[in-house]
Amino acid sequence: MFPSIGSLVGKLGIDRIIKEIKKIIYTILDMIGIKLPKWLDKIINLIDEIIAFILSGGSSKMMTTFSIQEQNYLNELTQLAKLEQAHQFKFQEDEDEE
Q1: Residue 37: phi, psi to the nearest 5?
Q2: What is the pTM of this model?
Q3: 26: number of Cβ within 10 Å
Q4: Which of 12, 18, 21, 69 shows the smallest number of beta carbons within 10 Å?
C-alpha cells in the first residue's frame, strides 16, 4: 500500500493513519459521553509532535511538511465541529417545529 515506509509519502501516511485512529477514538469516547481532561489532550498532542519528529528524522524540510499536515488536520477537526454544531442546531429547529 505504501511506496516505502522510509519515504516521505510512507512517513506521511503513517502519521495520517495515527491521526485518523486518534479521531476515531475521540469520536467513540464522545458518543459514549466520556470527556477527556484537557491535560490528557495536551499530552496526546505532545506525543503527536514527538512521533512527527521521529518520523522526520530531524529534517527541517520534513518537519515543515509534518507541520503543514498537522495544520490541515486541525482545520479539518474545526470544520467537522462546525458541521456537527450546525446539524445539532438543525435537529433542534426541526423538533421545535413539530
Answers
A1: -65, 150
A2: 0.57
A3: 15
A4: 21
